[in-house]
């Protein structure tokens, strides 16, 4: 499934920086539904450091130059800046950013490896070349739950207008619901 995310491109390209509140941890429930089948799992996203302007610019340049492979090559050797814990699997976050959004914050985190290849029956499937990162994007509100989505195995690119295009290995969107900052 491919999604073009104009707001996501603004997130990636945004020069405005929210006062970084890292380290922080967010909890959510990941849910996916296809036909009459659904599945859910607990999610934790931990961020120890948000990207600088220079790091954001480098990530955008990498995606422009070579898509997912260039982004993965840029991020893989970087130190971990948190983790995504989906169910019982923890995957290192290599890039995290935040920006203001509708009274809250829009958080984007990227790993340098997929979390899992979610198959048609919501079971892990074989690895597929090109779906080499995971990306979660979610909104955190000052009061009340936030919402977002996660692509546990994704390809990324920018379209001709600079919008982020995320192609997810899975056939259905994995929603992140009831997102809250943990205290």
From the structure above, extract its key features.
single chain, 183 residues, alpha+beta, 8-stranded antiparallel beta barrel, 2 helices, 47% strand, globular
Question: Which geometry do the CA atoms define?
Answer: globular
* Total helical segments: 2
Strand order of the largest sheet: 2-3-4-5-6-7-8-10
Radius of gyration (Å) = 15 Å
Helix content: 10-25%
Oligomer: single chain
How many distinct folded domains? 1
What structural category characterises the helix and strand content? Answer: alpha+beta
Annotation, overall tally of beta strands = 10
Largest sheet: 8 strands, antiparallel, barrel
> How far apart lie the N and C ends?
35 Å
- H/E element string? EHEEHEEEEEEE
Low-confidence stretches: 6-20
- Percent in strands: over 45%
Mean pLDDT: 86
Task: Explain the overall architecture.
The protein has 2 helices and 10 strands; from the N terminus they run βαββαβββββββ. It has one domain (2-181). The chain has helices spanning 6-13, 53-75; strands spanning 2-5, 24-34, 37-47, 82-86, 89-101, 104-111, 133-140, 146-158, 164-168, 174-181. It has 183 residues and is of the alpha+beta class. It is globular and about 35 Å long. 37% of the residues are buried. Strand 2 (24-34) and strand 3 form a beta hairpin.
